[in-house]
Design a protein that fits this description.
The protein is built from ten helices and ten strands. It starts with a helix and ends with a helix. The strands form four sheets. The chain has a four-stranded parallel sheet with strand order 2-1-3-4, sandwiched between helices. Strands 5-6 form a two-stranded antiparallel sheet. Helix content is 43%, strand content 15%.
Length: 297
């Protein structure tokens, strides 16, 4: 594999380990985790995020630069639950031997039938889409930072407490906004099945033409069934996702006589100049657009 060869060729350029008093070198697998790490770690962390804004973690291919960051990291933080299918190969190739923290450790997972894998039940990896789980992520990150940098324990704890308070406030707002929508109208269509935890937590029915992974392909049968359901139930809330090809949702909307309601952020944050640049801004954007679409006559 080409990326493995490139990684091996560049590893001899690795810098030495961080010295005493230097920021902790942390690698986060994707942008949502990266934002959480920044909120907890502050200036005591030098962060590298492998899969950046508007990028698809499902389809990620490691680069030599990313491998160097991984090999020289003090701590690596991943989502787990099978989300980063490439991480084990990358860790092995880069020769990283440090701690790997699974941010989702302790969340209550749910499974769904994946028609792309023969109807098997698989674990949904998108646990951050429930803000209660987001608080578990933050706690795991804070504990990992404190273990790796005991001198910063007080800072990490204070930062985490302040951030957890903001997440709790956002969850209160999310529940209040969705409570304004009659339960029968709380239905949305998204590009792939990334909002299962959101739907279970906040009473929203989530429909998607493809499964958990953006690598899945929508079958003509599934698309046809979805179009019929949209027409029958008069679903108005159809959305593209920032890291997926919008053409499928646009075609479904056209065939169903509906109109896409904008962009949601599911597996990646937006760039700084867009409305989903942080974990909390992502929720505010998503819920605002969902509720607006749900109220269309």
């Amino acid at each position: 594999m080409r990326w493995v060869i490139s990684i091996l060729l560049c590893l001899f350029l690795l810098p030495g380990p961080a010295g005493a008093g230097q920021p902790l070198k942390v690698v986060a697998s994707f942008s949502i985790l990266g934002d959480m790490v920044k909120n907890v770690g502050g200036d005591r962390v030098k962060l590298t995020t492998l899969v950046g804004p508007d990028s698809d973690t499902h389809a990620y291919e490691p680069t030599p630069t990313d491998a160097r960051a991984l090999a020289g990291a003090d701590v690596v933080i991943i989502n787990g639950l099978g989300f980063e299918g490439w991480i084990d190969r990358m860790v092995k190739t880069a020769g990283y031997r440090g701690k790997i923290i699974i941010a989702s450790r302790g969340v209550k997972t749910h499974t769904m039938i994946d028609e792309d894998h023969g109807g098997k039940r698989i674990t949904d990896p998108h646990a951050w889409q429930n803000l209660t789980n987001g608080r578990i992520y933050v706690t795991n990150i804070e504990q990992a930072r404190s273990q790796a940098d005991p001198a910063g324990t007080g800072v990490f704890k204070a930062n985490a407490e302040a951030y957890l308070k903001k997440i709790a406030e956002m969850e209160t707002w999310v529940k209040a906004e969705l409570a304004k929508i009659p339960p029968a109208r709380r239905k949305i269509i998204t590009s792939h099945d990334a909002f299962g935890y959101f739907g279970l937590a906040y009473g929203v029915t989530i429909l998607a033409p493809t499964g958990f992974s953006t690598a899945s392909e929508a079958s003509a049968q599934n698309v046809g069934k979805l179009i019929r359901q949209i027409k029958q139930e008069k679903i108005k809330a159809l959305f593209v996702e920032n890291m997926t090809d919008p053409r499928l949702i646009e075609r479904i909307a056209k065939d169903a006589g509906a109109k896409p309601g904008g962009t949601l952020y599911s597996d990646a944050l937006s760039k700084p100049d867009a409305p989903g640049a942080t974990y909390l801004e992502m929720f505010r954007n998503n819920v605002t657009k969902m509720t607006s679409a749900m109220t269309i006559p």
